[in-house]
Amino acid sequence: MSHLKEKTPLIEKLKNKYRLTISNEASFDEVLSIRLSRLNVFTVTGLFSIVLIALVTLFIAFTPLREYIPGYPDGEMRKNIENNAVLVDSLSHELEKRDRFFQGIRNVVSGNDFDNIAQDAADSIVDPRYKNLKFTKSTTDSIFREEHEADEKYNLSLGSASKRRGLSNTHFFPPIKGMVSSHFDTKLEHYGTDVVGGMNDRISSVLDGTVIFAEWTLNTGYVIQIQHANDLLSVYKHNSELLKKAGEHVKAGEAIALLGNSGELTTGPHLHFELWRNGHPLNPEDYIKF
């Protein structure tokens, strides 16, 4: 009766000792002999692999070799990315300021509630941490104010300067010479003067100023708006072509557009001219002879 060979457990097989011998081929002399087991070989090989992987990872992570990995940005690219991020942030800030500026101009032209608009704009700009700050006049400031007011009490130049700031002595250059077809009338919500002229006639700026708006609009066609001193704003509508861009400085009498018939709210070549001050419309014919 034959006996079945008893199976050896796996852990025992791993612990079995083996001898690795290196001999001289010519003399068969033993040069090196090492006792090993399968468990030792697996352990040493695993530790060596882990250490090798860790060293390679650290070597790549903290040396310029990482830049040779596909998809990893090099130093110049990272610098450009940071610069672009800064530029985009600055551009967003400037666009936000520009939008607030143009919204203010639209509010001036349309006559919106400026108190609420100004308060909303202030709330959006001011840091919330500083909204509850309160300022009081110090004794030193009050004394300085009284001394300054006493010194300027008999200063005649202040009165003349105040008079010069009025509109009575302001000389307006006619934007165009022609026949007035429609007069200023707040009851009809017609806040300007319509002047008929020839197609592509020259339109001039009434005063020195800066162009703050020069764009196409659906109802009034090509429109240009100019901000002047003394809180004055002049508006020129229904032009056939604009000769100036927003941000440009113009002189009184300088050509800014060509008369036209653009926009839906027009029946023929003419200039619709408006004059505003501090958000209130003025009758252009009180100051300009067309």
Automatic annotation (TrEMBL):
It holds the Pfam family Peptidase_M23. Residues 190-284 form the M23ase beta-sheet core domain. Keywords: Membrane, Signal, Transmembrane, Transmembrane helix. CDD domains: M23_peptidase. The chain crosses the membrane at residues 41-62. One of its GO terms (molecular function) is metalloendopeptidase activity. Gene3D superfamilies: Glucose Permease (Domain IIA). This is M23 family metallopeptidase.
